[in-house]
Design a protein that fits this description.
about 325 residues; mainly alpha; two-stranded antiparallel sheet; 14 helices; about 70% helix; globular
Length: about 325
């Protein structure tokens, strides 16, 4: 791993993109058939409860590294489970992105070829180390912000506040668990960074809370923004409501149908998550077995076979896996050193 120090601002940006990992592919579907009040309450509940998990994540730094570097059968089994969880996170990230690329940009291309190509890009970034992934995330974040600004500003005239009606209060429609788990769980992969490698950890804690608040604010505004343009019924019917909003952009009657270009944000989110997942897998593998190269080759073969064989993935499996991943990390951090 690259021993250069991580600055608080670059890690907080990295964390923001990780929290966005599944918003455009899985979480956006969670708001289907929800009224405006239910959407707001669901996001607020996830935001408030998430502070508990954020506190666990912050307190796990260094403790994770101390415990995970120990030898023993029990620690070995824990590492295997963590590797399996991260492989599943990687599979979902790769599968969902390749599905969007196939449906929107390359309808005649085989989805498995897209997945394998994307996986190769992630592998190149992953083997460079977490520091390189962090730098890449910060550079791409500037592009990410530009795309967000284009999406919002050039769609302002398409907003219709009536689409946010009717305003109903229905507690049965509130759903926050999946939002909470899928936004927080990717952060726990950053625990393989030793605390001493972070320049001013206390400042990172402060910036992380700011990033966390900004993320949920952005998520709430984005969902309500899309619903205000498409309407709740149409929002619930289309496969990619975020992409459908981009289809409506018309920049001075010159640039139209920018969804193929603006899909870059979904690509950035999944690239960062997938690259970190691969790096996480490799680091845990190296600390488990002496035959590092063979272990990595075996894992690469397993991931490749899974990508080739899998045609459908249930979102429930990812939620269960992400929950287990958080529990395992919490357990490791609480172990006596």
């Amino acid at each position: 791993m690259n021993k250069d120090k991580y600055t608080p601002i670059e890690l907080s940006i990295f964390s923001f993109l990780l929290m966005n990992s599944f918003t455009s592919t899985i979480l956006i579907k969670e708001f289907h058939n929800m009224n405006t009040v239910s959407i707001i309450l669901s996001i607020i509940c996830a935001f408030l409860i998430g502070f508990i998990f954020l506190k666990i994540y912050i307190n796990s730094f260094n403790k994770f590294n101390i415990n995970i570097n120990k030898n023993g059968l029990f620690t070995f089994v824990l590492k295997i489970f963590l590797i399996i969880c991260s492989i599943i996170i990687l599979l979902y990230s790769t599968f969902n992105l390749s599905l969007i690329i196939k449906d929107i940009i390359l309808p005649n291309m085989n989805q498995k070829i897209i997945s394998i190509t994307f996986l190769c890009i992630c592998y190149i970034l992953a083997i460079k180390g977490i520091k390189s992934i962090t730098i890449a995330s910060n550079l791409m974040f500037m592009v990410y912000i530009v795309v967000v600004l284009i999406t919002f500003f050039f769609n302002l005239f398409n907003i219709n506040p009536i689409n946010l009606l009717p305003i109903k209060f229905n507690l049965e429609n509130i759903s926050f668990y999946k939002i909470l788990i899928l936004t927080i769980s990717p952060l726990f992969m950053l625990l393989i960074i030793p605390k001493e490698d972070i320049n001013n950890f206390q400042k990172y804690k402060k910036y992380l809370y700011i990033s966390y608040t900004l993320f949920y604010s952005y998520l709430l505004v984005k969902i309500l923004f899309i619903v205000s343009i498409l309407g709740i019924k149409y929002f619930s019917l289309v496969a990619y409501p975020e992409i459908d909003v981009l289809k409506m952009i018309n920049i001075f009657n010159f640039f139209e149908r920018l969804e193929e270009i603006l899909i870059i944000n979904t690509f950035i989110q999944n690239l960062i998550t997938s690259s970190l997942s691969l790096n996480y897998i490799y680091n845990l593998s190296k600390s488990s077995l002496k035959s590092n190269k063979w272990m990595i080759r075996i894992i690469n073969a397993i991931i490749l076979l899974l990508i080739i064989k899998i045609d459908v993935l249930s979102d429930n499996l990812l939620v269960i896996t992400a929950t287990i991943f958080i529990i395992l990390n919490t357990f490791i951090s609480l172990k006596k050193t």
